[in-house]
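W.,

You were right to be curious about this one. When I first looked at the sequence I had no strong expectations either way, so I just let the prediction run and decided to look at it fresh. Below is the sequence, 191 residues in total, followed by the output.
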Amino acid sequence: MAVGLPENVFMTTVNAAASWCRKNSLWPMPFATACCGIELMATASSRYDLARFGAEVMRFSPRQCDLMIVAGRVVMKMMPVLQRIWLQMPEPKWCISMGACACTGWVFDTYAVVQGVDRFIPVDLYVPGCPPRPEQLLRGLIELQDKIMKTGTLNGTEFGKRTVAEGPPTMEFEEIRRSQESQLLTQADEK
């Protein structure tokens, strides 16, 4: 005769419990510029309700945050400030790059606009779009929560390994030119 556990008892590991707590209590640090910032504000409104996912506490003090949301274009003069804020955030911390400008620089291919924040800080999740809808940011937050649940440990040892950005490799000017030429040739061949 086996003795079973009562219905109100469940068993888990300490790492899984710590990951569950981290996943459901993200405190975002918004770094919002331009139109993506408006969509980020809309995500926190009552219509989309970011609070359902435990991320309603938008803090503007980096020492109280564990999720940075970079929304919109970032210019070179802002990059030292962004890096300082990132370094002031305590571990464990995560970063979402929101919008085409934050991810790649998009149409602002100039010397003054950063061509992807992943060149300067490690980015965990990219939310594409110009500007991305609040639903896209919510979906990105859910995917980040899944990533946190799968990779988290109690002591946060996985974050010590994050020394370089995990984003896509940067392309040299010649690679970009060759890819554009090949696209033009294929379009000409199709006609």
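Here's what jumped out at me. The chain has a mean pLDDT of 82. And, maybe more interesting for your project: DSSP finds six helices and four strands in the chain.

Coffee later to discuss?

I.
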